[in-house]
Structure formats: structure tokens, C-alpha cells
Amino acid sequence: MESMHGAAGKIRLAVLEGDGTTRELAGSIAQAMDHPCATPVAYHSFEPFYAASTQVRPDVMIVDLETLGQDGHLSRLAAAQPQAMLMAISPRESLSRSLAAMEAGAHDVISLPIDPVAVAERIDRFLIQNTRLPRGESLRRQAAPNSGEPRDLTTTREPFRFESFVGGSARMRDVYDQIRRIAPSSAPVFITGESGSGKELAAAAIHARSPRAGAPFIAINCAAVPGELMESEIFGHARGAFAGTSESRPGAAEAADGGTLFLDEIGEMDLALQSKLLRFVQTGTVQRAGDTRSRPVDVRILCATNRDPHAEIAVGRFREDLFYRLHVLPIRLPALRDRREDILPLAQSFLARYAREEGRAFSGVAPCAGEKLLTYDWPGNVRQLENAVRQAVVLHEGDALTAQMLPAFLLGDGGLSHRHEPVRGAAAPFGARRRGGEIEPLWAQEKRIIEDALDAFDGNIAKAAAALEISPSTIYRKRQSWSDRIEGGDGGLFTGFAG
Ligand SMILES: Nc1ncnc2c1ncn2[C@@H]1O[C@H](COP(=O)(O)OP(=O)(O)OP(=O)(O)O)[C@@H](O)[C@H]1O
């Protein structure tokens, strides 16, 4: 493996500056980076930059597309310096230009004006997230599992990564390509996919790759907060708008000004609030609850749902006019069972992460465990896989993750019969369980099922409700009724639950 680091392990940065960029750009970026940088080299024309790069073998190249001139120069640079992260500077935000630069080999495209701190953050993130291998070698290693090479499941192989995603299946590479393409635009993005398939990661990746990366990314889960509070969460409220509000407060839309607002579980938003959101999307202004003043904000809206939006429109739960305003750039996250080649790289990466966090020695997945993971259907997708690996790491010790360490739901009949299992995660089977010879009452069975679902989603009510195909308010109501039943109804809401 070729080292990407220069002398004394410092990052070598080479910049081809342009008219719109300042002379001090290279130095400012180097200073703002977390990774230690050698003194950067900066040029103002292509040929000397190209010649110097051949000598220096930079780790990061930032090139101004105008100064670069001919189209072929970018691909020439990419081919000559496969070890380097290649970032292109475009004079203005342009989707087609960004696409062309990516196709020529750029890893990232930024537009003027340049914020050296934001650029430094993107380089640091890239250096952390990428395999640090030369491009050609990285691709060869990714291809290896399908190329006839014997699979050694217990060996840690560097997985393919894109932003926070792990997994190099063809279906996910299509998703990464779509993210790269749509990130530079300001148009709304509508992300669909089953629960746990990575919709929020996709939203974060779009923001991180967009020209808004230096501004806030605000995520709101539309199912997590009761309807009447959601308006104030998103749009804020004026002083005295509700009982007990002594201060005026901005909402998420204002907090995201200049950046990105991610509305997760948009299908859960009530119709009155959908009208207000439509007005916001149409006018680009927000009106805090109880306020008469409209305030202009510049946010890019991303939203996600695990429901079928067309079915929601058909039954009148989702406004069609709002849908078409938001559904400008669609992305669909594939279910994990439709990209099984990602299962082991994901499991390896979760194993490494949780072994580190828990101080365990695990270094790989044994073939017996790999077999179980590969043949299960993963109705809860990557989240369920993550939880299964995490549970095994917390409860066991060893060098390799073996089948015996896996949660019980994986050890049954190979798992393929678990297709459409309604509860995600290590849920207990359904059925009228006996307790001391008696049939368990319905409320207690319901409680167990809902608690299993909450466990599987780390206490997240919205996600557990989506998996159970009930509304979050049903869970709130049921919990109230159990606490009334168990504690004689002291009025204390939701005790003993996270989220
Ligand atoms: N490809 C991936 N690589 C690494 N981690 C992933 C990947 N996909 C999902 N995850 C992880 O799985 C969990 C669920 O992902 P995420 O929250 O993005 O899913 P989601 O589709 O938004 O789920 P929901 O619809 O329930 O909100 C998170 O912990 C996330 O980090």
C-alpha cells in the first residue's frame, strides 16, 4: 500500500489557483486542517503545476477549473496522481459542470467564493473516510470478493466507504453517484426507502457534499413530536403564542438558514402543518407561530419517508401539491436484502467500531457467523444489522465473531423465512404466550411487542412505530395505559422509556 503521507507523516497539499481565488488560499486551507500539512505548493498555470505534482506526489490537489483550461487536463491529473484526493473549484454552482468534473476524476467540486475552513473540513473528512489507497488499488480490492479470490471472512478488509456509508454494491454505488450529482444543486430532495436503510445518512451526505456544507444541517423527525408542537419546532413561535411562552423563538427552518433542513418521516406530518410547509417552500419565508411578520430564509429542503408517498396521497394523508414541490430530486435507498454483498463489509465495520468502543479484541467475522448474516433477510435493514453486531460485542468476548454470539433471531432456520417479519430486531415471536400456565393477557403481549420494537430502535418511538406500522401516538397512548394499569395511574407520562 502506497503511503499517502509526505515527510514526517504530513499531508502534501498542491493548489492550482485561479483569478477568483486568493494567493493565500493554499496556506489558509493548510492552516485550517486538522491533519498536519507540509508547506503547500501553489501554482497559477497548469504545466508547472503538473510537473511539480509529478515530483511532489501530493496527497490533496485543489484545482481551479478555469485555470486548468482544457477539459482533458483534469483527467490527466487524476490519472497521473491516483493517490491524491482531487478537488475542483468551479467559478459558479453548476450541476453539469460538477458532473463533468466528477466524471473526469474529481472527488469533490466546490464553487466560488471559497471558504478555506469549509474546504479544510471536507479534506479532513475525506482523508478520514477514504481507504487511503491509490484509486486503482482501492477498486481492485473492492472487486476482490467477486473475482474468484477465496473469501477469508475473518480477515479485516478495508470496506468501500462514501461519506458515512459503508458498502460498495452496485446498487449503493448508484446511490453515491446520485448523491454526487444532486449535492451541488439547491433543489429539494425526496428520499425513500425502508426503515433503517440509510435515508438520514443520505441526507447528511448530500449536505456534506453541497456548497452549504459549511452552514448548519438541521434534522427534524416529524413523527417524534406531537403535531401541535411540531409547528413551533419547524417554524418557531412568537412571544406569548402559547401559554407559558415568554420568549420569541426561531424554529429549525430559521436555524438552518444558509444550510439544509432535513424533514425525516415527512409522511407523519399533519395536514395543517403540510399547508404551512407548502407556503414556506413556495415563498422562501417563515412565519413564526403567533407572529404576523414573514422572515426570508435560504434553506435547502431534504425530506424522507419509509411510506409509499403515492399511497399516502391516494388516501388523503399527504398533500399532492406539497409532494410535487418536494419530489424534485428523488433518491431511493435499496433494502439490505437486495444488496447482500454489503452485509459482511457492514458487519466488519460495525464490529470494528463497537469492539473499539467496548474495549473488545474482535478482529473479524468467523465463517459460521458470516453464513448466518448473509442468509438472513434483514427486515430492519442496516440498523438491525448494526444492533445485532453491537449486541454480540457487548455480550461476548473473543477474536472472531462466531454464530453462537449472534442474537437468537439469526440462529433459527437460516432466516430467509423471516421475510416480512413485522417487528425489527431481536423481537420475541408473536403468539399468545403462556405465563405460569395462563394465557398472557392481550395488553401484556402488546406491551412486550412494543417494548421489543423500542429496544430494536434504541428507544426511538417514531422508528418503532414505523416498523410496527402504527402511529407514534398509539405508542404514547399505550404506554400511558400501561403505566395507569401497573402503577395505579399516577399521571406520570412515559416513565421508564427513552425517547
Ligand atoms: N450504508 C451504511 N453504512 C454504515 N452505516 C449505515 C449504513 N446505512 C445505515 N447505516 C446506519 O444504520 C442506522 C440507520 O440508518 P438511518 O437512520 O440513516 O436509516 P433511515 O432509513 O433514516 O431509518 P428510518 O426510516 O427508521 O429513520 C444508523 O445508525 C446508520 O448510521
Summarize the entry for a quick read.
The protein is of the alpha/beta class. The chain is 41% helix and 12% strand.
Describe this structure in words.
With 499 residues, the chain is of the alpha/beta class. It folds into 4 domains: 7-139, Rossmann fold (3-Layer(aba) Sandwich); 170-239 and 249-332, P-loop containing nucleotide triphosphate hydrolases (Rossmann fold, 3-Layer(aba) Sandwich); 336-418, Orthogonal Bundle (Helicase, Ruva Protein, domain 3), CATH 1.10.8; 435-487, Homeodomain-like (Arc Repressor Mutant, subunit A), CATH 1.10.10. Helices cover 41% and strands 12% of the residues. The strands form 6 sheets. The protein has a 5-stranded parallel β-sheet with strand order 2-1-3-4-5, sandwiched between helices. Bound molecules: adenosine-5'-triphosphate (ATP). Adenosine-5'-triphosphate binds at residues 165-167, 193, 195-201, 264, 304, 306, 346, 382-383, 386, 463, 466. GO terms for molecular function: ATP binding; sequence-specific DNA binding. It holds the Pfam family Sigma54_activat. Residues 165-394 form the Sigma-54 factor interaction domain. The modification 4-aspartylphosphate is found at residue 64.
